[in-house]
Amino acid sequence: MENLEKKLEVELFQKIKSITPIGGGCIGNAMKVTVENGTSYFVKHYKNSKMHKAEANGLN
After folding, report:
1. pLDDT value of position 34
2. Are 45 and 7 in contact (CB under 8 A)?
3. What is this structure's pTM?
4. Which pick of 5, 35, 50, 51 has the fewest CB atoms within 10 Å?
5. How far apart are CA 56 and CA 59, in angstroms?
6. Is the dihedral of CA 44, 50, 55, 60 positive or negative?
7. Mapping DSSP to helix (H, G, I), strand (E, B) and coil, where does residue 2 land?
8. Tens digits of per-residue pLDDT, 4-53?
9. Which residues of 49-59 are buried (b: 16+ CB within 10 A; e: fewer)?
10. Helix %, strand %, coil % for the chain, to 5?
């Protein structure tokens, strides 16, 4: 999780204030990420990088 947090801080140009797991994500880990300015993001993280595309294709 620490590596993901560092990557998000680089991409969002903000320090992470909190990461809250969100249930129901059976294909990937879903979470609410809040940064220091108060903005929140929905983030989904996959152990297998190909899963993101596979899930997106399944939703179409």
Report:
1. 98
2. no
3. 0.75
4. 50
5. 5
6. positive
7. helix
8. 899 999 999 999 999 999 987 667 788 999 999 999 999 988 877 777 77
9. eeeeeeeeeee
10. 35, 35, 30
